């Protein structure tokens, strides 16, 4: 027959209590945000592409930068692309005061395009060639790529690109995809507008060649129409 002393009971109680608690400190516990099923589906892997398009890791994207239909009162006609670099949004203007809003990453300070342009042409899985200015700034990084990079999952333009021209001349400014989800909502690229790959595929199929593009910078606050979700 087992005998319990007062000392053995005092030792056992803390051990039993410890079995009912977690050993993980609240400060080290990682809690992933709850992502609605519609966005999980929207940003899932894309089938039927020339190269794999993986699902986007939505835990690395701020929720406000996910694609959605919003109220957008503007005098721009439907079909116009409006890029608000300061707010980090691209709007595709639709009928009845609405727009499709996409989160974007934009160019570093001093490298952004501003004004009006047109989508001269579009490309699926485009080649990428660094500009002469990029090669001059970072020859070790971009010099070996002067002849261009073949399409594929490592190509910085991603699965789609829209090429912007102004007055018949190439601005060297592109709207394109990215696999770096964490860059959406930030100023990180060398001047171009980047969208999540699923978003650029969606935008690509909605806009024809010749579509008008208006790029707003911070100084254009008076011409910016602030949307309401």
The CATH homologous superfamily: L,D-transpeptidase catalytic domain-like
The number of distinct β-strands equals 11
As a percent range, the share of helical residues equals 10-25%
Beta content comes to 25-35%
CATH topology: L,D-transpeptidase catalytic domain-like
Give the low-confidence spans: 1-30, 221-229
The major sheet is characterized as: 9 strands, mixed
- Helical region count? 5
> Mean pLDDT, nearest integer?
83
CATH class: Mainly Beta
CATH architecture: Beta Barrel
Order of SSEs, N→C? HHEEEEEEHHEEEEHE
C-alpha termini separation: 72 Å
Rg over C-alpha atoms, rounded to the nearest angstrom? 25 Å
Shape, principal axes of CA atoms: globular
Structural class: alpha/beta
Strand order, sheet with most strands: 1-4-3-2-11-6-7-8-10
Tally of domains? 1
GO cellular component, one term: extracellular region
Organism: Pseudorhizobium flavum
Keywords: Cell shape, Cell wall biogenesis/degradation, Glycosyltransferase, Hydrolase, Lipoprotein, Peptidoglycan synthesis, Signal, Transferase
GO molecular function: glycosyltransferase activity; peptidoglycan L,D-transpeptidase activity
